[in-house]
Specification:
Number of domains: 1
Distance between the termini: 36 Å
Order of helices and strands: HHHHHHHHH
Number of helices: 9
Strand content: under 5%
Structural class: mainly alpha
Helix content: over 70%
Shape: elongated
Length: about 270
Amino acid sequence: MLDTINSNVNHRIAALSRKGPTEWSDPVVSWLIFASVNFFAFILLWFYGLAQQAIAGDPTHITLFIVAIYLATSVHCLWRCVAVSRQAAAEQRLAKDITGAVDKRHRIMEVAAGLAAGRGGSDGSHIADHIRNLITTAKAGGETRKLDQSLLLRVLAERLSGSNSFGDFAGDLVMKLGLFGTIVGFIMMLAPIAGLNTEDQGAIKSSLSVMSEGMAVAMYTTLAGLVGSILIRIEYRIVEAATDKVFADAVALTEVHVIPVLEQAGTAQ
C-alpha cells in the first residue's frame, strides 16, 4: 500500500501546508452510485428475460451461487466504505484542529497532549492512535531530535486497510467458480458421447439435448464468473482509493504539523 501512494504524498503535503486539509470524496456515495447502476442493469436483464434464462439454463445452480457471493461481498464492501469514511472524517477533524493552531506551538502541544491522554481518539480514529504513538515515541526518544515514523506508518496502513484484501479473495473465488462451472458444463456435454448409439435416432436427439444443456451451463457460469469478478474488483477499487487518500492525508498532516512540533519540543527541552 505504501508503494502505491508515494507519488501522491508530496502533493498532499504541499496542499496541506498551503490550504489545510484536502477535499474529500465520500466512498459511500461512490459505492451507492455504482450499486444503483448495477441494480438498474439487473432490472433491464430481468425485464428482457435474460436473467431468468441464465438461471433456468444452469441446473447446477453455480450461477446463483456466484450471484449470492457477489451480493454478500457488496455488503462487505459497503461496510468497508463506511469504515473508511469515518476514518476520513476523524482525520479531517484532527487536521482542522491542528492546522488551525499552526502558528501557536503551545496550542498544537495541547492538542497532542489531549490525544495522548485519550481525548480525540475515542471514536476509534486510527490517525489519532498514530499521533499518540508518535508522541510516545518522542517522549521515549530522550535526546533524539529526529523522529522516524516509517514503521508506524506501516502499522497505520495495515489498520486503515482492514479487510480490504477480502475483495481480492472474493474476486478470485468468483472467477474460479465460473471456471469450475465451465468444466462441469463440458463434462455434462461430453458424457453422452461415450455410450452414444449412432443407429438410435431417439438416443441421438436425447444426447444433443443433454449436450446443449451442458454447453449452456459452461457459458452461463463462465459469464457470471467474469462479470462478478469485474464488478467486485471495481467496488473494492473504490475502497482502496479512499483508503489511499486517508493514508496520504495522514502522512501529510504528521509530516507537516505534528512531527516538527514534537521535534521542536524535544529540542527546547
